[in-house]
Every structure is written in C-alpha cells, then in structure tokens.
Write a structure and sequence with these properties.
Radius of gyration: 36 Å
Largest sheet: 6 strands, mixed
CATH architecture of the largest domain: Distorted Sandwich
Number of domains: 3
Structural class: alpha/beta
Strand order of the largest sheet: 12-13-11-14-15-16
CATH topology of the largest domain: Spo0b-associated Gtp-binding Protein, Chain: A
Number of strands: 16
Shape: elongated
Number of helices: 15
CATH class of the largest domain: Mainly Beta
Strand content: 15-25%
Length: 573
C-alpha cells in the first residue's frame, strides 16, 4: 500500500510530485498519433452478403412460424368482467338548527357494462386485451347525492369475428364472483365466514356495527339481500346453460341519424353487443327507512359485475382467397394486383407469408384496375427492393422524385384516370383479396400453419388456386390443395373458381423455340388436368390463366374473371 504524505518540496517529495512519479511508473502512455491506421476487415463479396441476408431472413421466418406469428392473432380467449357497482352511503342530514336530521345516504352508481363492437379498421385480434375490467360506479354520498354510473367499456374487434362463451364445465373458464368468494372462504369457521361475508356486503354508520347485527331490522334486510342474490345467481346460471353467447360479427353496426332530429343533440354512437353487465349500485340507508325504523344506520355495498370468459375467432371477410403451396408467388401476385399497396413480404424461400394479408383491388368501368396504372412494373424480392430504395435515397434521387399524382400527369391516359385519390372518381367496383400462408400436405391435420391458415379461408365466397407453373408437375400440387381443403371442410373446394399458373416467365428462358414449345405443352397438360378432375358442381371447369406476377403480365384477364366471381357470389347472397 502506498502512503502519500503531503508536505513542502524542500528536502522530500511533496504529494503532487509523488503522485506524478507513481503514475509514470504504473502506466505506459503512448503518444496519440493521427497517422495510425485502423485495420478494417476485408469487404465481403456482394453475393456472399446477399446470401447471408437471405439466410437471416429465413431464420427469422422459421422462428415466427414456430411461434405462430407475431402481430396477427385469429384466435384468443379473454376474460371479461363488468364494473363493480358503487357502495351506498350511511349518512344523516345535518344543518344549522337541525342536529338530528333524517337519513340522507344515497345509492351508489352502476358499474360499467362491457360491449363488443365489430369495426372495419382492425384486421387482427392482437389489440384485444386478455383481461377486460370495466370501471366501477361511484359511491353514494350524503345529502341524497347518488353515485355516478360508470361509462361502458367497448371491446373493438375486426369484422368477421365469431364470439363464443365458454361452457361452465370448461376448465379455461374463469370463476364467477360467487365461486371466487367461496374459494376465498375455504378453511374458515362458520363465524369467520359470516363476518367476512357481511364485510363484503354491508356498510355501517360509524360506531353502529355491533348494534346493527343484533337488531331485527338489519337481520330482515340481510335475509332479503341473500334471497335476491340467490335468485340472481340462479338466473345467471340458467342463462349460461340455455342461452350462451354466440355472436357472428360479420357486419358493421351503423346508427343512422334521423332526418328530423333536432339540432344540437349529440348523435348516439354504436356500442355493439352487450356481453357482461355491470353490477348494480348499493343502497343507501334511506332505502331502509320504514315507519318502524326511522334511523337505519346501515347501507349495502355495490354488487360485482358479471364475469364471463369468451372465445374470439377471426375469419377474414375477403371476397377472394388465394390458395397455394409455399413459394408459389401469392404475395407477389397480391402486390401486383394492388399496385404495391399491399405490404406483403416477398422472398425466395417457403413460408415467407406467416399471417393473412388483405388487399383491395379497385376496378374502373372500362375494366382498368388501379394496380395496372400505378406502382412499379417489376415486383422483386422485398430485400432487393429495400436495398434499391436505400441506394436511391443515399444518392439523392428521391429528393426530386415526383409523387404519385405528379407522375399521373406524364401520360394522357393516366391524366384521365389518375392514381390514388384520383382513381376514386372512376372506380365502379372493388373487391378484397387475401394472401394466405402456404398450404402443405396434411395441413388439415394441423401441420405447418395448419388450422390457423385454413380457418381464414372459411369466409371467402370464392377461392383461387395459385400454382407454380415452373415446377416439374404443377398439377400434383393442385391435387394436394384440393384434397386438403376437402379434408378440413367437406365441400370447401367447390368454392374454387380459378387456377392461376404463376411464374410463367421462368419457362421462357432465353426465348428459344424449343423452350417455348415445352412451356406450352406443360400449360396444356395443366389445362387438361383441370378440365378432367377439377369440375364444379354445376359442370363448369375451372379457368386456367398463365401469369407472371413479377412482371405484371396477363393479369387483366385474371382480374376480370375474379370480378365476375365476386359479383356472382354477392348476387347469390
């Protein structure tokens, strides 16, 4: 250990000199030089860098698939509890020259109800909380001031959500307020149970608790209170057994304002469907005023709200559902049909799409669809487009880039039709199309994404098969798709109307005559298979349309056919 003595520098080291000497001995300080060069690792080969990037994306995709998706939820169980009612008040009126006034304790407010409301602004159940508890009502006060009722709690869910109440014997169902109270009273003596039950249900005027429990007025009120509570519990149990909650929220709730409604009156907003009622407020001591009991010194607490466990299942309401094997080009097709507005991830490996994505196809009167006049002509892999976008931004190309509406001025036809909001003027028909995760063999047995994928197709009135025409035998994949749909739900494959043979550009190669003939033969074999084995119940075969979603080729015919199928399905409804 070094001991430093601070003294004058005459004859011995002072503290400052000693510290400087010790510092020089302990540390070897090298002078800083700006001429030193830090060795950087050698630059990676672009092909190697792209391969590593693709490998990272694939690992991320595999991890998400094992987790069942991150941002999309199509099945969730929630516990809903109505708000507790406010407590009543035990008080007496006091004012000048009135030392002993009448009872003035008011009732408590009602607890908040819980509603469930479908909204078109949501596409997933991930925003729905797992536990919902409405606000409690306000307590009553003296001077006959009743407590304020709590506002309702609205659970917003996407359109297409199916709500089911779990049965009473389901272990996933949460206990109701009475079962929870019985569990908390286990192991107590009869006297302790009576005390705790009274504390939960009654309020006493200060200093009058012991007197109240011995009076006949209180005992009669307690017996009546337990009788009403028992009737309420029996009615709740009968409703859960005979009329459980079953809701199919496939339509948006809209309240039309009356034409002759007076000005200045606030329009009533839709609340949806009631699923859990709030508890009623407790009674103040004025409620127990009788001719015999002129000064009741007790009040009741608010009742607990209803407790219920709901199972929410989302079934997308898309007009067209794309069905295909992994890496068949469904995401690229959706991006091409929507002009790049649908943000789906495109990559060269399987299970790129883990969650259903819904896009909107807008069509004009002359058959022009918005995606054909907007967006890019080539839809490449997502990481390549992001890399190209970052490069353009770094080089400053986007500083003077034209907006969508400015680009519409470059061509006379685009000037007429326009893009974005300008297309609203010419739009006469629109339909939604859903890109679903890839379907593999034995998906009906919950392999791959299994039921979570097939569930999203149940609501689509028309299905479109998407096959990879560059595969060795695309008709075999088509057979697997049809069989899996039938295994999951008999008759589901009869809703298929179209077969899109995607990736036709990969068959052309360099355009030699031999390659073109082979491509035509493969397409002819696919058409023969569809005409022989893919017959609809009315005798019509499925249409086969070869396309190249990457280069947006031959999509006009596909859009026209899908538009006709959607019109036919809507007229049938």
């Amino acid at each position: 250990m070094l001991t430093i003595q601070i003294a004058n520098c005459s004859g011995r080291l002072c503290g400052r000199q000693f510290l400087a000497t010790a510092f020089r001995r302990s540390y070897h300080i090298q002078p800083f030089s700006t001429s030193r060069v830090v060795q950087q690792p050698p630059p990676k080969d672009p092909a190697q860098k792209a391969e590593e990037e693709a490998r990272k994306r694939q690992r991320k995709s595999e991890w998400k698939r094992k987790q069942g998706g991150q941002t999309f939820l199509d099945h969730v169980i929630i516990t809903v509890r109505g708000g507790k009612g406010g407590d009543g008040c035990a008080a007496f009126h006091r004012e000048k020259f009135v030392p002993y006034g009448p009872p003035s304790g008011a009732n408590g407010g009602r607890g908040g109800d819980v509603y469930i409301l479908p909204t078109p602004h949501l596409t997933t159940l991930s925003s729905v909380p797992k536990k919902v508890i409405a606000d409690a009502g306000k307590n009553g006060q003296g001077s006959w001031l009743n407590g304020k009722n709590a506002p309702p709690f609205v659970i917003r869910v996407p359109l297409g959500t199916i709500v089911r109440e779990l049965p009473i014997d389901d272990p996933r169902r949460a206990k109701d307020e009475w079962a929870a109270e019985e569990e908390s009273l286990e192991g107590l003596s009869s006297e302790d149970r009576r005390v705790k039950m009274r504390e939960k249900r009654w309020l006493h005027y200060p200093g009058a608790g012991d007197q109240n429990v011995a009076r006949d007025f209180f005992l009669d009120a307690e017996a009546t209170h337990y009788k009403l509570e028992r009737e309420r519990r029996i009615a709740r149990r009968r409703r859960a057994l005979e009329e459980p909650i079953r809701l199919d929220l496939d339509k948006e709730e809209i309240i039309e304002r009356p034409v002759d409604a007076p000005l200045g009156i606030k329009q009533k907003e839709p609340l949806g469907h009631l699923v859990a009622a709030g508890g009623t407020g407790g009674y103040g001591n004025t409620h127990f005023l009788t001719k015999e009991n002129r000064s009741p010194k007790f009040a009741t607490r608010g009742n607990e709200g209803e407790r219920i466990t709901l199972e929410l299942e989302l079934k997308l309401l898309a007009d067209i559902g794309l069905v295909g094997m992994p890496n068949a080009g469904k995401s690229t097709l959706l991006r091409a049909l929507t002009g790049g507005r649908a943000k789906t991830e495109v990559a060269g490996y399987a299970f790129t799409t883990l969650n259903p994505v819904v896009g909107i196809v807008r069509v004009a009167e002359d058959g022009t669809w918005e995606g054909s006049i907007s967006g890019s002509e080539v839809h490449d892999e997502t990481w390549l487009e992001e890399q190209e976008e970052a490069k353009r931004m770094q080089e400053g190309e986007l500083a003077y880039a034209l907006t969508r509406n400015q680009q519409a001025m470059d061509d006379e036809y685009l000037l007429k039709m326009g893009k974005g909001h300008h297309f609203d003027i010419y739009e006469t028909f629109r339909f939604t199309i859903a890109d679903n995760p890839g379907l593999i063999s034995e998906a009906s047995e919950d392999r791959g994404l299994g039921h979570s994928f097939l569930r999203s197709l149940e609501r689509s009135p028309a299905l479109v098969y998407v096959v990879d025409l560059s595969a060795p035998a695309p008709w075999e994949g088509l057979r697997v798709l049809r069989e899996e749909l039938e295994k999951y739900q008999p008759g589901m494959s009869t809703r298929a109307r179209l077969v899109i043979a995607n990736k036709a550009d990969l068959l052309a190669g360099e355009g030699s005559e031999t390659v073109v003939i082979e491509a035509r033969n493969k397409l002819r074999q696919l058409e023969d298979f569809v005409q022989q084995e893919m017959i609809l119940p009315d005798g019509r075969p499925l249409a086969v349309v070869p396309t190249s979603a990457k280069y947006s080729q031959n999509l006009d015919r596909a859009v026209a056919l899908m538009q006709g199928y959607v019109k036919e399905a809507r007229e049938a409804q």
